[in-house]
User: Fold this.
Amino acid sequence: MPKATHKESAGKKPSEQEFQRVINEFWFEVHHVAKYLKREDLWSVKFRSGSIYDNFLLKMIEWNEQAKRNWESQLPPLGKRMRSWVDADTWKALHQIFAHFDSSDSRRGLLHLIELFRKIATDTAKRLGYTQRDSKFGFWLRRHSNLSIRAQGPLLQIGNPSRAGLRPDGNLGRRLCQ
Assistant:
């Protein structure tokens, strides 16, 4: 087995199918984090959130930065020295997604994660010339975008899901992360 080099390398432009797969998997994981928050299962919240950061958010940030540089620059692996290669707004937003081991802060972090991922994915799609197709969950969130971050009470309280063609059952519920 070859030894890992962890050398910096120029990014490879994702296919539109790969790009959409990352978006869909992001929403799949976010949906599960919201369910775990509702159940107060904080270990699972943290485990799944970590997976989102590592597998989907970092990849989208890297693609975005590579697209800004016409796929010619090299980025360090695993997000190393990220502060030196992301824009100031992204760096500032990243400070809001990591939460303490409690429900309220985890809810807040999830909302900021959703906001950051969408912003970066939208910009990346434009730079790649791809159509960003959100999942049904993402579409529903956008359509019922009265998201609010409160210290107490429900978060992601998003109107009537049946208007978006989604059932208000256990899959999404009327109030996620409650």
About this structure: The radius of gyration is 17 Å. The CA atoms of residues 38 and 177 lie 5 Å apart.
